[in-house]
């Protein structure tokens, strides 16, 4: 099975090579021995858009060359790009560009096209691929978990152990769970002088009523956050020292890199205040796992 970076890179390349064919998510999934449902889910998670929508947009974008530089009729162009029927192509074309193929030929209107997606080396990790950050609004949520003090030097090894212990032992004690498949690893009370922080393996709950003895509750208010997205070729339980260190090193590199204008020019990351990871274990398909990492941001004046 391909590593996540190679899988996604190959899928993007196959789409470009297959634009003038009937290539679709089913064929891509079969080629790489992955379920079509999971391939679509991985693609949306990685690129923040549906695979089928991207396929359609790229076909329409490339079809513009034939439409505007040849005398081919619309039916032939539709068939060449796998639409099958002229009306199917015209409807998709109008949704994409706001005009019909015939009207575009007459008007010479400038239209915006969706360019091909690319992966770059900075996305690549030893057993995974990292995307982000993107700026998102995280709605208010409540969590119940088991907090513990974690020295910075031991965080990449101790935090995964605490997470597994909580998931197998304390999680079943919590009754008003909002989503039983979603794990939250919450880091706060970061103290550089003491060289430690508080890490709380937890689960989302409807409210903080009836916190079990020995556990604690926290509320995270609606906050603007930077979000990173990680796909790994391993089980969630295999997020060990090596995997975690590579992931956090990639995020630290971004946080300290002032040459990233889109985010750095507008926002300051509050990573020295708190951050949390979110894992939906129901998304694991036996090969690839997904994880999201969030840190609050403040908009620069």
What keyword list fits this structure?
301 residues, alpha+beta, Arc Repressor Mutant, subunit A, Multidrug-efflux Transporter 1 Regulator Bmrr, Chain A, 11-stranded antiparallel beta sheet, 10 helices, 11 strands, 38% helix, elongated
Describe the structure.
This protein is of the alpha+beta class and 301 residues long. It has helices at 4-17, 25-31, 36-47, 51-69, 74-80, 86-97, 101-107, 155-170, 241-255, 261-264; strands at residues 124-125, 128-138, 141-145, 148-151, 182-191, 196-205, 216-220, 223-232, 267-269, 275-280, 289-299. It folds into 2 domains: 4-107, Arc Repressor Mutant, subunit A, CATH 1.10.10; 121-299, Multidrug-efflux Transporter 1 Regulator Bmrr, Chain A, CATH 3.20.80.10. A hairpin with an 8-residue loop joins β10 and β11. α5 crosses α6. The mean pLDDT is 91.
